[in-house]
## 1
Amino acid sequence: MKKNDLLLAAAVILAAAAVFAFQFFRQSSGRQFVEVAVDGEVFGTYDLGADQTIDIGGTNCLVIEDGAARMEWADCPDQVCVRHRAVSRDGESIICLPNQVVVSVDSTEENELDGVAQ
Ligand SMILES: [Zn+2]
């Protein structure tokens, strides 16, 4: 009985480890992008894995650093977007309402799904 419990526990741990490893592998292999939209139109798509500074129409300045994107500078009066924490995960976004700028994180897998849906 005790031996079976141990085996079961080992199996559960092994399964959990496998799932964790799979997710980790998927995350590290899947490329993530930052999509920038201005006034509802796509301004550009940028690789989250490549450090860069993006000037968004002179009103906002986005910085991609260490796999995360943050609003470095903006000329909007509320500065909500600048104070927003850096985004790096699927579906996260930074929105600058006054300038109608939307920065959102997207993975390649999601893009493929979108393509199928259309
Ligand atoms: Zn703003």
## 2
Amino acid sequence: MIVKDWCMYCGECAGVCPKNLILLKETDLIFDDSKCRECDICIGVCPVNALER
Ligand code: SF4
Ligand code: SF4
């Protein structure tokens, strides 16, 4: 997952991942891509379109 510069670290994406693969640590988003099922829910909820797969 690519996180664009304009991410505002709101945590929306971390809250909706059905597999809890996104960890928000202050100003860092950490993805566990190995278990991602590519549902794109995280991409869909981002209010500023900061995620890309
Ligand atoms: S939902 Fe978008 S803006 Fe919010 S933390 Fe995730 S990538 Fe960043
Ligand atoms: S695409 Fe789906 S499974 Fe993968 S990180 Fe996003 S919400 Fe989680």
